[in-house]
Amino acid sequence: MFGVKGADKARLTTITLQHLKAHAGSFDSLVVVNDLGDITKPDIERLTKVANDMVFGLDDTGAIREKIDHRLRA
Fold it and tell me: What is the pLDDT at residue 26?
C-alpha cells in the first residue's frame, strides 16, 4: 500500500512499483492518492499503468477496505 501526496510522491511511487514488478515477481499494489488535483495528468497516467488498484481520497475508507479484502481473498 502506497500513500501518494503530490507529484513528487507520485513519481517516486511509479518508479518503486516499476522496480518491484520487474524484480519481485508476483506483486500487488494499492495506491491511495490524497488529492488528485496536486498531481499532473501525465504523472497520474504513468502511476495508473503500474498500480494494481488505486483509490482517490484518504477518506474513502470503504473503497480501501474493499480493495484490500479483494486482494486477501484472491
Answer: 80
